[in-house]
Design goal:
Elements lengths: L6 E4 L9 H15 L6 H5 L6 H8 L5 H19 L11 H10 L4 E5 L3 H11 L7 E4 L5 H10 L5 E5 L2 H9 L3 E5 L6 H4 L4 E3 L4 H11 L4
Parallel strand pairs: 1-2, 1-4, 2-3, 4-5, 5-6
């Protein structure tokens, strides 16, 4: 059987970009300005990866939806300013090497993120990884449809999604593709258990792909 490469879809926050520490600083600073309760770093980072409405709804349920939208916009502006000059430091260790290796091996790469277009654009531009990806989709509150559209408009073949949250494993399962948990990200053991496979470091994905592809799984 001819070995065939998977087409790969990546989540962004908690999988490629380690934006949790920026989100913690921004949320706590804006909460101080707004006179809101100070949430812990663990509470904030534990919600990174959720779409804004759910993220802020869980973090500050006392706010109305209109207030959450204004608060979210101010947090995003603060985050974007804080990321300037960080470059590849925004990425998890090993991501740059992983993407370069996948590019050299000829893999088709895509991003599916529930982050806002402004947030995703800032992370991609500052970290410098945009050139590795054939398509970047973002801004939708759920991921199933985004992943389906990437698959329908992408090359033929088998697909695999890498992420750290239920929304990633759910999107993969709903579209009948292999799911891989980024266990170094912002998820938790219960979420990671919902994936088909798991990696503890980005570069482990290369070995996993070799195993899956040599098994004739694609």
């Amino acid at each position: 059987m001819t070995k065939q490469k998977y087409n790969l879809i990546f989540d962004m926050d908690g999988t490629l970009v380690n934006s949790a520490f920026v989100s913690v600083i921004a949320c706590r600073e804006l909460a101080r300005r707004w006179g809101l309760p100070d949430r812990s770093a663990e509470e904030i980072s534990g919600l990174v990866g959720y779409a804004d409405d759910e993220f802020y709804g869980r973090l500050y349920p006392e706010l109305t939806r209109e207030e959450r939208l204004r608060f979210a916009a101010e947090v995003e502006s603060f985050e974007n300013e804080s990321m300037v000059g960080m470059g590849s430091k925004l990425l998890y260790s090993g991501i740059s090497e992983l993407l370069e290796s996948l590019k050299c091996k000829g893999y088709y790469l895509a991003i599916a993120s529930t982050g806002t277009p402004g947030h995703v654009e800032a992370c991609i531009n500052e970290s410098g990884i945009g050139g590795y990806f054939a398509v970047i989709r973002c801004g939708a509150p759920e991921k199933v449809k985004m992943v389906r559209e990437i698959i329908e408009n992408g090359p033929e073949g088998s697909w695999l999604i890498v992420g750290d949250r239920h929304k990633d494993s759910d999107a993969g399962r709903a579209n009948g593709i292999v799911t891989v948990a980024a266990r170094y990200g912002c998820g938790n053991p219960e979420e990671y258990a919902a994936f088909d496979y798991g990696i503890d470091h980005p570069l482990e994905l290369l070995d996993l792909l070799d195993v899956l592809e040599n098994k004739g799984s694609v």
